[in-house]
Amino acid sequence: MDLSRALEWWEEWQLRVLVLGSLGIQCHLAFFASSRKTSIQPMSRFFIWLSYVGGDTLTIYALATLFNRQRKRHYHSADGSNVIEVLWVPILLVHLGGPISISAYNIEDNELWRRHILTTVTQVTVALYVFCKSWSSSADKRLLLAAILLFILGVFKCFKKPLALKRASFNSIVDNFQYSTPQMTTEHREVELEKYIQKARDFVQLNKQDPQTSVPSRLLTPKEKMNTYKHREELSKPDKLFVDYAYVYPDRLDKLKSLWLLDKENTYDTLCVGLSRTFNLIYSRLFKVDGGNRAATGCRNRCPSPLVYLLHLLLPIIPIGLFHGSHKEAYKGIDIKVTFFLLYITYLLEISATLTTVSYHTEWSDRIAQHNLIASLASNRRHSRLMGIAEFLQCKGLLDTYFCLKPCYSSKDITMLVRRHVKNGWLNRIEDVESYWRFSDTRGHWALERNGCEGIIWSTEMPFDESIILWHVATDLCFYSQGTCPDSECARLSRQISNYMMHLLCTNPEMLLPGCRRNLFIIAYRELEAILQGDDATSLLDEHQLVQKIFSMMEPKKGFVRKARELAQELMQNVDERMWEVIKDVWIEMLCFSAGRCRGYLHAKSLGYGGEYLSFVTLLMSHAGLETFAERQQRVLLRLPKQERVRIAKERIQEEAASNQGTDPSTPQGMVHVKEEENAAIPPAASEACSGLAEQEERAPTTSASQHGECVEIVVLPKEQSVHPLFIFSE
């Protein structure tokens, strides 16, 4: 009897539960989907994925339930509930379109846009069938008009999702970017590369002094605000790096200049904005790429004109008003409440989506994942019973990944180390094509040679994944050894980079370097276990005790642990007080080496699950004019002798300078030029709004900065492209 009552209740409430459940999922996605860019718990990320996948399934099931109800002729009730349910059909179509904050959960979802179009066409057809079959000629005309208006909105929203997936697919992004075609023949490529390097060297030598730390926006002049804004916009656009595109040399030089003239704070913030915008381009409907390679956002993108913008906001209000004025007494009270709830909440979600488009967030997570070999062994010994159960259930790897070591939040500090390394490279190491390539290929050699550690260069000449294991264990041995008093900041950052590289080797070896072997971690782990054979399970439960055990071995066996102990002893005995500086520099070079060899597609894919810090480094190196993965795959073959190539490049630079001097005789020599086409990064609305400011400043087209008594002038934007202070985003 109870079962039959439950079935009767479900038969009556089934559709209401489905539509309200669909609405709840849309609310969850609207409020939490954008949090994927920040540091959230794995369980929260799982619920976002479940809502993304289950939302479409629940909506389709609700439409199928409506379809089946209309096929049952005996379902027509006297209170007209089947008529009011027709208003729920277009609302379900709106839900099927999903919120603006998430169009794809994984990058593979974008490639399935054809399947989503087929699903959309099918569901729209079902919705129209239900509408035509269920509506009677005697029904309220106001409800009919409300349903038609909602259908227009629902079909429009329903088709936006597959179209957004198509626009964010890999080939579509590549096609939508505007590419510059270099005007040169194949035999002149090496000269063009040399010319780019010589121009870059001239620029960095002229601007050796690091820009001052950011000052409050209110203390900057309009020109300084405009200059900073221009450089930030140039670097924060969704980068072609993520589609494995090799920038032409003039574009590389422009990016290098923009990055070089930004201070530390603006550099890091710009990288965060760039990653955030790339995420929005691939995984949401907040961005698209226009023909000029600018990522547009806000109402300008979603609503091409004010009329369309107003229609987008006002169209849902009309059905709500029509439903208010209809003869609601003919329907069940619970159905009226459900309808009001659906209409109002769905409309509020649309308004919040529009406001989100206008005031989008550009934050990015500063989380850096960590994984440590010795800490994993110590943790397993402390929780031996739990790990035994996990191994029996085949989930020990999951516990090792998520519970052995907490992430760190030193993204900004490590990024500044990479920035300093890149700047030192341009100032002190890069002189020509050969040195430009050697700098990109170094993975610790330069740091060891610079500090007189030629005796341990062997540790960086073995396969890269083996070097990672070796230096990782050696770093921990130095960190926990007795008698060592390292600089806390330097030691902390060195160990965090070491743990992050080990994380890449264990969980994402393809990003670390194609061909890296994940099983090396297991091999090294078993070596450590072999050292502890015969010891009491309750002893050696922390990293300090394990390190002392490793150093106390009388006859170490062959393997990673033996080599790591030799390396650590060499560092502690011979390098002395400079030990942590050497270790830090080696890890920075290894980090940059890995970043320059990771495909852009893998970076874009990692953004979907929170991103990898390696994307920060890759983006910084790309902006700094260094080689990326795509550029390395297309290295030019050097045929000319070095001296001749450098001579030809310098002659062409002088010819271009003379030509520019002839075109603009008022430009002093040594002035840094900024291409006028870069001004496209400034919104057109901003240019129009600040025309008055430009007229006031047309008499002062340059700004100067004193550097060691030397005045360096930087040409700012032409007056017709100036930016009003209202359009400057202060931090």
UniProtKB/TrEMBL annotation:
<feature type="transmembrane region" description="Helical">
    <location>
        <begin position="338"/>
        <end position="360"/>
    </location>
</feature>
<keyword id="KW-0472">Membrane</keyword>
<dbReference type="Pfam" id="PF04578">
    <property type="entry name" value="DUF594"/>
</dbReference>
<feature type="transmembrane region" description="Helical">
    <location>
        <begin position="13"/>
        <end position="34"/>
    </location>
</feature>
<feature type="transmembrane region" description="Helical">
    <location>
        <begin position="117"/>
        <end position="136"/>
    </location>
</feature>
<keyword id="KW-0812">Transmembrane</keyword>
<feature type="transmembrane region" description="Helical">
    <location>
        <begin position="307"/>
        <end position="326"/>
    </location>
</feature>
<feature type="transmembrane region" description="Helical">
    <location>
        <begin position="142"/>
        <end position="159"/>
    </location>
</feature>
<keyword id="KW-1133">Transmembrane helix</keyword>
<dbReference type="InterPro" id="IPR025315">
    <property type="entry name" value="DUF4220"/>
</dbReference>
<feature type="transmembrane region" description="Helical">
    <location>
        <begin position="87"/>
        <end position="105"/>
    </location>
</feature>
<feature type="region of interest" description="Disordered">
    <location>
        <begin position="685"/>
        <end position="708"/>
    </location>
</feature>
<feature type="transmembrane region" description="Helical">
    <location>
        <begin position="46"/>
        <end position="67"/>
    </location>
</feature>
<feature type="domain" description="DUF4220">
    <location>
        <begin position="49"/>
        <end position="358"/>
    </location>
</feature>
<dbReference type="Pfam" id="PF13968">
    <property type="entry name" value="DUF4220"/>
</dbReference>
<dbReference type="InterPro" id="IPR007658">
    <property type="entry name" value="DUF594"/>
</dbReference>
<protein>
    <recommendedName>
        <fullName>DUF4220 domain-containing protein</fullName>
    </recommendedName>
</protein>
